[in-house]
């Protein structure tokens, strides 16, 4: 039952990109338990006897059926309107659907396309970073100040510490596998579609090449990217209108001098792009010592 609900909750996250957390109940003839899912993973209560503690059951039902979208886990800072057909539409450019992180636990990166007053494209990105990591807006400012070429880093606006997953848990909650995550948002000048949208061999190879150059320039500026995927390499044009590529998304990036800490959450993301070394760094690995993610792992991802 719990596994089935986990799959259902994942589908809810994919269908509702403005969701911060998701909750549901498991009910039997005489017991009930609450399942809570957010970007730090799952929290499941013990079974509660319906007959001995009916007031708790009533509170659970009332909470899960609230008309307040914030109370049921939706991000109310994303404003919605109702069109003539009764459907919800975002006050964003929804001709291009948002890019959504495909797992519950992790950064939960969601990218939206918006428009400024002049009609220019704006790239808005939401993400949940692990506690102890440098905020993305600081890394973006560092890259922009050093004029790093080949990286999308011009910030138009940002908001940090919007929410934390620890606030969705009981005050005395403790678990070995729980790592707090902080929700933040940045708005950048939009550069173009991801590499996965390439239309020719020349476009693909040129974009990958420029992505590697951007990664090198970022590393020279003191920042290690650590999340090289097709979605994080953008197809763009240079100042002369020629085909070019740019690297984006510093949600999991770190200062190049920063070392991995045992207390930080293990790497999450698309394993398709992880290097062999990163894949073998886990609690289940008994033969090899844990390794720190470095630029060679990123090159292997390319």
Automatic annotation (TrEMBL):
One example GO MF annotation: protein kinase activity
Cross-referenced PROSITE patterns: PROTEIN_KINASE_TYR
Source organism per UniProt: Ephemerocybe angulata
Alphabetized PANTHER family for the sequence: FUNK1 11, FUNK1 6
Ranges of residues in domain Fungal-type protein kinase: 3-156, 171-302
UniProt cross-references to InterPro entries, sorted A to Z: Kinase-like_dom_sf (IPR011009), Pkinase_fungal (IPR040976), Tyr_kinase_AS (IPR008266)
Protein name, per record: Fungal-type protein kinase domain-containing protein
SUPFAM superfamilies with a match to the protein in the record: Protein kinase-like (PK-like) (SSF56112)
